[in-house]
Amino acid sequence: MGHEKLSPRQKMIGMMYLVLTAMLALNVSKEAVEAFKKVDAGLTQTIKNYAIKNDMIYKEFDRAAAENPAKAGKYKTTAYQVKERADEAANFLQGLKIEIINTAEGPENTAVKGDEVIIEEVKSIDNTDVPSEILIGANLNGKANELKALLAEYRDFLIATLEGKNPTAEEALKTSLNTADGKNKDGEVEPWETLNFQTLPLVAVICILSEYQLAVRNAET
User: Fold this and answer.
1) Beta-ladder partners of 113
2) Using CA atoms, how far apart are residues 55 and 51, in angstroms rounded to an integer?
3) Cβ atoms within 10 Å, residue 143
4) Helix 202-220 crosses helix 167-176 at what angle (to 10 degrees)?
5) Rounded CA separation 126/130 (Å)
6) Which of 36, 45, 167, 185 could lock onto 203 through a cystine, CB 3.0 to 4.6 A?
7) Residue 124 and residue 142: Cα distance in Å, rounded?
8) Cα separation, 94 vs 121, whole angstroms
9) In angstroms, rounded to a whole number, what is the distance separating the alpha carbons of residues 101 and 124?
10) SS in 3 state form for 152-167?
């Protein structure tokens, strides 16, 4: 689990996200919603940076295990178990983003290239129907339920892997990968799924999914 101080760029992205979320609650203009594209672009770059950093760490596990298999081999095995779980969660989140954009934009859109999302190319930034249809569903049986279960399993796996040896990291995991129900703006308890994704504009939902991808990669580190 990483515990680095946030860089000025990360702090800026976080502040923009908070401000824009507040603006959405006030039903502001499409131009303000457009600014979410910049936030997501920043989150996406940070996710890529974590992936590069994590790959370097895995190479160190490879090197250590090659030099001393008896001592480092078991740690390499555990590390790659973490990688497998992290990749599963990150890829599921990416798949959700791609499905939402393809559904809203149509099959010939330019916002999805292979496994990559080009947020600047998204046109349906204020579409609130498609994200809710996919993630919430007509009978609350949408894919956010599967996402919640996957994130919870990933979090619990990482905590178990720590074997009680790092309480600080455990608390950080519980916070960054929190899937508990919470209170809405009216102070009423609301399910995690609807609290995060119900009736939000498409670009805001994409940002939230990117935030969870970042949390997954940071937890992996």
Assistant:
1) 116
2) 6
3) 20
4) 170
5) 10
6) 36
7) 20
8) 16
9) 8
10) HHHHHHHHHHHCCCCH
Beta bridge partners of 112: 117
* DSSP state at residue 115: T
Query: In one letter, which amino acid is 2?
Result: G
Q: Pseudo-torsion of CA 92, 168, 13, 207, nearest 10°? A: 20
Strand partners, 81: none
| pLDDT at residue number 29 | 60
**Residue that the structure tokens 């760029």 belong to:** 9
CA distance 185 to 152: 24
Q: Which distant-in-sequence residues (6+ apart) come within 8 Å of 10 by Cβ?
A: 46
pTM of this structure: 0.85
Rounded Cα–Cα distance for residues 130 and 125 (Å): 11
- Enter the tokens of residue 56: 């370097």
Strand partners, 190: 182
